Amino acid sequence: MVWISFILILGRLWASELPALLTKHSSETLRFISMDGRYAYVQKKPGVLGLVSSFRSIDFMTDNQNNDFLVTSSPYKGRLLIESIPDAHIEMNLHKNHKISVVDYGNTVVRGIGFGRNPKLHLKDEWITYYDTSSKVIRIENLLTQKKYEIKLSKKPHPFFIPEVEMISSRAVIYSDINENGYAALISYDLQNLKSAVIFKSSISATRLELCQSKDYLAVGEFPYDGVNRSSKIQTLAIKEFTNLSTFTTIYNTIDQDVGNIVCLPDYLYFVKTLSQDSQLNVKITEAVKLDLKSQKLETKSNLKSVAQIIEMDGRILIPFRGAFYVLEGRSNIGEDILKSVPNKEELQIDI
Amino acid sequence: MKTLPRFWRNQFCNIILGTVLSGLCLPTFAQTTPLESPKQVEYPGIIQTFEKLIQIDFEKIQKRTDLLTKSGKSFSKLSSTTNLDLEPDFLNSIVLHSDPGYLKMASTDRCRFYEAILTDLLKSSDGKIKNILMTYLEDGKRESAIIPKKDFLTKVVSEQCPETQKNIAAFQIKTFSETLKTINFDIPNGIDQCKNIHFEWLTNPRTPFICQIHEYIKEAKQNGGDPKDLQQRKTISKILETKLSLTQKDYIENVCKHLDDENLFCDEFLNVSFWTKIANGLEDSLYAEDICGPSSGGMNSICLARLKKEQDLCLYPSGKNPGLRPQPNCDQISLALNYSSFNANFRDCPGNSDQMIATNMGRILNHFSPIQLAQQEGTCSSLSAGVTYIFNKKFDNDENWGLEACYDDKINGKEICSKTFFGKYENDPASYTNVVASILKETRGIDDSTKCEMVENSEYNPILLRFKSGCFIVFEKDNCHISQCKHKIILNDRPVDVVRIKGKANLAYFPSNVLNERFSQHYLLTRDYKKNGRQISNLSSVHAFFKKNSKGIIHGVGCAEDLLPSFFKTYALNQCTPMPFVINGVIKDKDKVTFVTRTAGDSLQAPRLISWSSVYSAVKSYQKKHPIKQWTMYGLD
Known about the structure:
The complex is a heterodimer of chains A (about 350) and B (about 625).
Chain A (H helix, E strand, L loop, with lengths): L1 H13 L15 E4 L5 E7 L2 E6 L2 E7 L5 E6 L5 E7 L12 E7 L5 E13 L4 E6 L4 E6 L5 E5 L12 E3 L4 E7 L4 E8 L4 E11 L1 E8 L2 E8 L7 E7 L10 E6 L5 E5 L3 E11 L4 E10 L5 E3 L10 E3 L2 E6 L2 E6 L15 H4 L4
Antiparallel strand pairs in A: 1-2, 2-3, 3-4, 5-6, 6-7, 7-8, 8-9, 9-10, 10-11, 12-13, 13-14, 14-15, 16-17, 17-18, 18-19, 20-21, 21-22, 22-23, 24-25, 25-26
Chain B lengths: L5 H20 L20 H25 L11 E5 L1 H10 L2 H7 L3 H9 L4 E2 L2 E2 L2 E8 L2 E8 H12 L1 H9 L2 H9 L9 H13 L3 H15 L8 H14 L2 H12 L4 H9 L3 H6 L6 H7 L8 H9 L20 H9 L17 H13 L7 E2 L4 H13 L9 E6 L4 E6 L4 E2 L6 H13 L7 E5 L14 E10 L4 E7 L2 E3 L3 E3 L18 H8 L3 E4 L3 H10 L4 E7 H4 L14 E12 L2 E8 L8 E4 H14 L7 E4 L1
Parallel strand pairs in B: 10-11
Antiparallel strand pairs in B: 1-4, 2-3, 4-5, 6-9, 7-8, 7-14, 11-12, 12-13, 15-20, 16-17, 16-20, 17-18, 18-19
Helix pairs in contact in B: 1-3, 2-3, 4-5, 5-6, 6-7, 9-13, 10-11, 10-12, 18-19
């Protein structure tokens, strides 16, 4: 603990002002931009999603004018996920399912998948998972074969619970669940024999399990919910050793009530750490930190005092903060006009 | 100060206050040196000095009284006197021997001072004051006289303070009960409001008389005072006690004990566990029912005691009123509730709501004008729908209510739709029960007297005689929300399928374009419902708002990902889950500021403490996402 604190103090000294993400598009309308800035998915107006690429702009998705869009990618960059949120400002409903579609990376041919929340691409973007809030089911679909699976979650008195899902192989789906007393667990579901097994169970209640995956490891973050005094922990599991459940390695452990929201990269991960806290008033100073997987060195990367979230977008790590986006990793200024290489066939091909 | 004996503090304050009284409040007293310095002064320790002061004072007052008695200078014999005042030495004696709280109250006004003497709250070297030493001007010369308390009341107090006689009459045994009804025993929910309440008590003309009763009861209980009439005083004391409720007794004790210290006064309200208040009957047991189970006759005191020790008991309550889980721990809920005066006397099952705008609106409307709970039928989340619909109808905005029940009018060959909300509230025609009944009248020819009733599917049993005839809307409790409700209609023991539900209960909380501004809920609240609507965009505006309107609330919409980042994770650019909320209290400790916040996803009885920083981030992020970049946090009062 002393060692971690010392590192944190050093880290805080080094935490410099972060650059804001600068693009040619207004930050409010931007939904996705590739690392090099060549592809930008933009919500041009409510209910209309467009792709801007190679000096061409095309509106390729039009929904109800009250709809809002979210676009996400995976490290593999094969496909993109599009969520269309119906009546975003007039139906405030945490149980609401979103319309989920996929599109090839940098492309505009949309394929409808279903209705749910928190969609995620897995395994070279060949699989998609999402959670259907109305039937409390995790839906899994192979995008190539279109084979579908579903995992029904137990009925629980947690009305807004949404599980975290990762696929570590075409057979194994790992997801988080929670029992009626608030104990979180990690469950492995075998798509071949349709059987599940608990691979990790939290020893304390009122924590949530977060999952993320990169290269050859799966990270499991255990963080307390807001308003609860609990410790925080991050463990990793080498994916190739997945069958051996004793191989969980704790890489970070603290009594602090960290926010979490981890993002995994090949050699390190980012998460939101609580640097100081008044637990009586529930007032926290939170910053984005970087945890090196090898050295387990922790480095404070922001100086915003109230960081809540970290997101990964096409390899770029961002802190969304009060309507702006601060860049932790990746180029921040992609608004400047520089001469780019001749676009390849793929880039020019915008299907309508 | 905390480590020093209370005696030291009292005497120190007395001297200071004595100086203040002589110098500011009663300037004419400062004509002679109040205390002559002893010939020999020893300073071995501060306590001995005080003892000496008291001794000197005692001797001085004795001598003065004897002298005036012997000289026959009785005030009653005097006819034309002016500039009546208390003797400075007598005043100093009072300052030296009285409770600092009562002295502070007495120093606020000349009449309060006199009343404090009359009610035996102020003491002199003899204890309770029987005779008063006065000075006056006679033929341009200042003279002194001694006056019995009775004459002091009729000849001095009645003339200078006409209100005092009325208050004396109001605090007789016969009138006490009626007087109590007119006294405000406001329980504060914030430090600023608490300090205001303390100041009101300090300057209230009734405070001396209320505290007289408190001291009277206390003395009788401790077998104090004159033993000759102790039995009689005990009897009167018992009569007085029966007229006071437990809450009033505690409240009065806090007032009278802490008149000189607003912080201690406020600690009693704000730092006492909310669970203790429930156990003592000071707060509604509804706040603990989800955790401790329903109270029949009295809340489970063992459970309430556990809530103070076991913080985690509040995280996952077993009650059927789920909201966002886990709830905050018991300490945080208790602290938040101590600083909140939000009317939270009903359940609205936020976990079952599919329209948080209606949930939030129901809460806001109930705060300003309590919901008629007895007039409700259906799921508890649909109660908010009824309240919100009727509110919109009142201000001619029901046209924008999207939820409709439709049927085919086969005679005219058209579809006929009526605005509706699931459930029944205030027997409004748009209640689903009434809409279904009128549709069945048109399509099935049922008579006017047939009413439809909302019945939970677990309760519905077709075998029972009760369900054999009549109209029943049988709904699935877990799937019956505000916009959607899974149900079937049973008419005379047979299902009917003539009603179609169209649309959703969608509403604009804040205007999403300039043209529809006047249809938004915020507009109706501020313009039509006249609850002002002050923009809250910085911390000083929050403080100013609550300082001015202790019962006001701040309402708004923010991104859930900023408001509650451990519950809502961001994974995409510009992701924002709009979350309505109500703020009804501020807790400040140095530079840390936190709000008592109820998001529309939280149980109404379990508010959260959310920092200003998080609330600001949430509203700012939502503003960026909002179609017309509307700021969405306003104070309503």
